[in-house]
Amino acid sequence: MIPQGYELSLCGLxxxxxxxxxxxxxxxxxxxxxxxPTGNTACYRVGPRAWKSRAxxxxxxxPRQPWEDVFMPHVATCARANPVxxxxxAVMPSNVVRLDLARQRRAVKGACRDATR
Length: 117
Ligand SMILES: [Zn+2]
Known about the structure:
6 strands; elongated
Protein backbone atom coordinates (compact mmCIF):
# COMPACT_ATOMS: atom_id res chain seq x y z
CA MET A 1 0.00 0.00 0.00
CA ILE A 2 1.32 3.42 -0.92
CA PRO A 3 0.45 6.50 1.12
CA GLN A 4 -1.62 9.19 -0.57
CA GLY A 5 -0.30 12.71 -0.91
CA TYR A 6 -2.68 14.06 1.74
CA GLU A 7 -1.20 11.64 4.28
CA LEU A 8 2.31 13.04 3.95
CA SER A 9 4.02 15.70 6.04
CA LEU A 10 7.26 17.58 5.49
CA CYS A 11 10.40 16.76 7.43
CA GLY A 12 11.16 19.61 9.80
CA LEU A 13 14.86 19.46 8.93
CA UNK A 14 15.13 18.83 5.17
CA UNK A 15 11.55 19.63 4.03
CA UNK A 16 11.27 16.33 2.12
CA UNK A 17 7.90 14.52 2.28
CA UNK A 18 7.58 11.93 5.07
CA UNK A 19 4.90 9.58 6.33
CA UNK A 20 4.30 9.55 10.07
CA UNK A 21 3.66 6.09 11.50
CA UNK A 22 3.18 4.71 15.01
CA UNK A 23 5.35 1.79 16.11
CA UNK A 24 4.24 -1.21 18.14
CA UNK A 25 5.73 0.59 21.15
CA UNK A 26 3.48 3.60 20.51
CA UNK A 27 6.32 5.85 19.33
CA UNK A 28 6.05 8.06 16.26
CA UNK A 29 8.37 7.08 13.40
CA UNK A 30 8.73 9.02 10.16
CA UNK A 31 9.42 6.92 7.05
CA UNK A 32 10.11 7.90 3.46
CA UNK A 33 6.81 7.91 1.53
CA UNK A 34 7.82 5.45 -1.19
CA UNK A 35 8.23 1.73 -0.39
CA UNK A 36 11.91 0.76 -0.47
CA PRO A 37 13.15 -2.83 -0.81
CA THR A 38 16.24 -1.88 1.22
CA GLY A 39 14.13 -0.54 4.10
CA ASN A 40 13.81 -2.28 7.45
CA THR A 41 10.37 -1.12 8.55
CA ALA A 42 7.07 -2.77 7.63
CA CYS A 43 4.15 -0.35 7.45
CA TYR A 44 0.42 -0.69 6.89
CA ARG A 45 -2.58 1.61 7.06
CA VAL A 46 -4.89 1.10 10.04
CA GLY A 47 -7.32 3.93 9.35
CA PRO A 48 -7.71 7.27 7.66
CA ARG A 49 -4.29 8.95 7.85
CA ALA A 50 -3.15 6.37 10.41
CA TRP A 51 -0.24 4.03 9.71
CA LYS A 52 1.40 1.45 11.92
CA SER A 53 5.03 0.41 11.58
CA ARG A 54 7.24 -2.31 12.98
CA ALA A 55 10.90 -3.19 12.63
CA UNK A 56 11.78 -6.16 10.43
CA UNK A 57 15.34 -6.62 11.69
CA UNK A 58 14.74 -7.80 15.26
CA UNK A 59 15.45 -11.36 16.36
CA UNK A 60 11.77 -12.02 17.01
CA UNK A 61 10.47 -9.96 14.07
CA UNK A 62 7.97 -11.73 11.84
CA PRO A 63 8.61 -11.64 8.09
CA ARG A 64 6.76 -9.07 6.02
CA GLN A 65 3.04 -9.80 5.88
CA PRO A 66 0.99 -9.53 2.67
CA TRP A 67 -0.76 -6.36 3.87
CA GLU A 68 2.52 -4.61 4.72
CA ASP A 69 4.97 -2.68 2.57
CA VAL A 70 8.62 -2.12 3.43
CA PHE A 71 9.72 1.47 3.97
CA MET A 72 12.94 3.22 4.93
CA PRO A 73 12.93 5.23 8.17
CA HIS A 74 13.41 8.85 7.14
CA VAL A 75 16.15 9.45 9.69
CA ALA A 76 18.35 7.00 7.75
CA THR A 77 18.27 9.15 4.62
CA CYS A 78 17.51 12.66 5.89
CA ALA A 79 20.14 14.99 4.46
CA ARG A 80 19.98 17.28 7.49
CA ALA A 81 20.02 14.53 10.12
CA ASN A 82 23.09 12.98 8.46
CA PRO A 83 25.25 15.87 7.25
CA VAL A 84 28.16 14.82 5.06
CA UNK A 85 31.36 15.67 6.97
CA UNK A 86 33.59 18.05 5.10
CA UNK A 87 36.61 16.28 3.68
CA UNK A 88 39.92 17.59 4.96
CA UNK A 89 42.81 17.73 2.52
CA ALA A 90 45.41 15.02 3.16
CA VAL A 91 48.17 17.60 3.56
CA MET A 92 47.19 20.77 5.39
CA PRO A 93 48.78 24.07 4.39
CA SER A 94 51.58 25.02 6.79
CA ASN A 95 49.63 27.98 8.19
CA VAL A 96 46.61 25.85 9.20
CA VAL A 97 46.35 24.30 12.67
CA ARG A 98 44.14 21.22 13.18
CA LEU A 99 42.05 22.37 16.14
CA ASP A 100 39.98 19.17 16.15
CA LEU A 101 43.01 17.10 17.21
CA ALA A 102 43.92 19.55 19.97
CA ARG A 103 40.33 19.50 21.21
CA GLN A 104 40.31 15.67 21.25
CA ARG A 105 43.56 15.65 23.30
CA ARG A 106 42.12 18.24 25.68
CA ALA A 107 38.93 16.18 26.08
CA VAL A 108 40.94 13.04 26.91
CA LYS A 109 43.05 14.98 29.44
CA GLY A 110 39.89 16.37 30.99
CA ALA A 111 38.36 12.91 31.27
CA CYS A 112 41.53 11.61 32.98
CA ARG A 113 41.58 14.57 35.34
CA ASP A 114 37.92 14.04 36.21
CA ALA A 115 38.54 10.32 36.82
CA THR A 116 41.30 11.03 39.37
CA ARG A 117 39.23 13.44 41.44
ZN1 LIG B 1 14.57 15.06 6.66
